[in-house]
């Protein structure tokens, strides 16, 4: 009895294949649908990867911009006249010449 029941029930996979084989347009459309769905998945993956790369580059740009600003402040600090004079007097033992230290050279 069990074997008769198996013969009466149609095999769904075979029925689908027979239906697709009978209608070529449906088969072609099914292939096109699968191809386009794979293309959508690929393009979405690529777009997300590019967005992640863009975010990384923007973050790196912001960090470099911040470092550049710190360097500008540091440059301004070291280029101040009072700072230069202080370094000249303390580290290099320089002093302003007095009138007695000056020598005038006349070229004829």
TrEMBL record:
<dbReference type="GO" id="GO:0043093">
    <property type="term" value="P:FtsZ-dependent cytokinesis"/>
</dbReference>
<keyword id="KW-0131">Cell cycle</keyword>
<keyword id="KW-0472">Membrane</keyword>
<keyword id="KW-0997">Cell inner membrane</keyword>
<comment type="function">
    <text>Essential cell division protein. May link together the upstream cell division proteins, which are predominantly cytoplasmic, with the downstream cell division proteins, which are predominantly periplasmic.</text>
</comment>
<protein>
    <recommendedName>
        <fullName>Cell division protein FtsL</fullName>
    </recommendedName>
</protein>
<comment type="subunit">
    <text>Part of a complex composed of FtsB, FtsL and FtsQ.</text>
</comment>
<dbReference type="InterPro" id="IPR011922">
    <property type="entry name" value="Cell_div_FtsL"/>
</dbReference>
<feature type="transmembrane region" description="Helical">
    <location>
        <begin position="25"/>
        <end position="44"/>
    </location>
</feature>
<keyword id="KW-1003">Cell membrane</keyword>
<dbReference type="GO" id="GO:0032153">
    <property type="term" value="C:cell division site"/>
</dbReference>
<keyword id="KW-1133">Transmembrane helix</keyword>
<keyword id="KW-0812">Transmembrane</keyword>
<dbReference type="GO" id="GO:0005886">
    <property type="term" value="C:plasma membrane"/>
</dbReference>
<comment type="similarity">
    <text>Belongs to the FtsL family.</text>
</comment>
<keyword id="KW-0132">Cell division</keyword>
<dbReference type="Pfam" id="PF04999">
    <property type="entry name" value="FtsL"/>
</dbReference>
């Amino acid at each position: 009895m069990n074997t008769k029941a198996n013969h009466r029930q149609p095999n769904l996979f075979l029925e689908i294949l027979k239906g697709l084989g009978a209608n070529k347009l449906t088969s072609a459309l099914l292939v096109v649908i699968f191809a386009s769905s794979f293309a959508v998945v690929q393009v979405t993956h690529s777009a997300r990867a590019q967005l992640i790369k863009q975010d990384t580059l923007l973050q790196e740009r912001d960090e470099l911009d911040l470092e550049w600003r710190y360097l500008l402040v540091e440059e301004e600090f070291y280029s101040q006249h009072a700072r230069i004079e202080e370094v000249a007097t303390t580290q290099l033992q320089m002093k302003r010449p007095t009138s007695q230290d000056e020598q005038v050279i006349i070229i004829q």
